[in-house]
Design brief:
By secondary structure, the chain is of the alpha+beta class. The chain contains 4 helices and 6 strands. The protein has helices spanning 3-19, 22-27, 46-59, 127-134; strands spanning 29-36, 43-44, 60-71, 77-88, 102-114, 117-125. The longest helix has 17 residues, at 3-19. It is globular and about 45 Å long. The mean pLDDT is 96.
């Protein structure tokens, strides 16, 4: 992929996220996607990625703002920096109780692309800061 194509793909992925359009997000990821989360095990495969997305939609309402997308010269990798503006809707096991708390948290994601699709998503944020904001 060219850098411009990669940038457009990542922008489309996040546009779908902000619209809450899980089907559009899934259409942009490879069947063999690797999902590296901030805390926890790596999820392999599109179905596990979809299951995680459904859980997140059930527990959180989030919009990403201040998006900056960076792309490697060969278009094979990308990164995005953004601010998560969220509301904690339903208690996630092992985390503080949900009471509709709002939070604002800087975050970033690294991507690897293959066959014109997103093949790896690695997201980082400060979990301790998120817990402080919702506690």
């Amino acid at each position: 992929m060219t850098p411009a194509e990669t940038r457009a793909l990542i922008a489309a992925y996040y546009d779908a996220f902000n619209r809450g359009d899980s089907a559009a997000m899934l259409a942009l990821v490879h069947d063999d996607i690797q999902h590296h989360v901030n805390q926890g095990e790596i999820r392999h495969g599109k179905q596990r990625f979809a299951d995680f997305g459904a859980h997140m939609t059930d527990s959180y309402r989030e919009t990403l703002t201040n998006m900056v997308i960076l792309v490697s010269d060969d278009g094979a990798r990308a990164a995005a920096e953004f601010v998560v503006n969220g509301e904690y809707l339903k208690t996630d096991p092992g985390l503080p109780p949900a009471r509709g708390q709002r939070y604002v948290l800087p975050a970033g994601t690294f991507f690897a692309l293959r066959d014109g699709l997103i093949a790896r998503v690695t997201t980082y944020y400060n979990l301790a800061e998120w817990e402080r904001q919702v506690s």
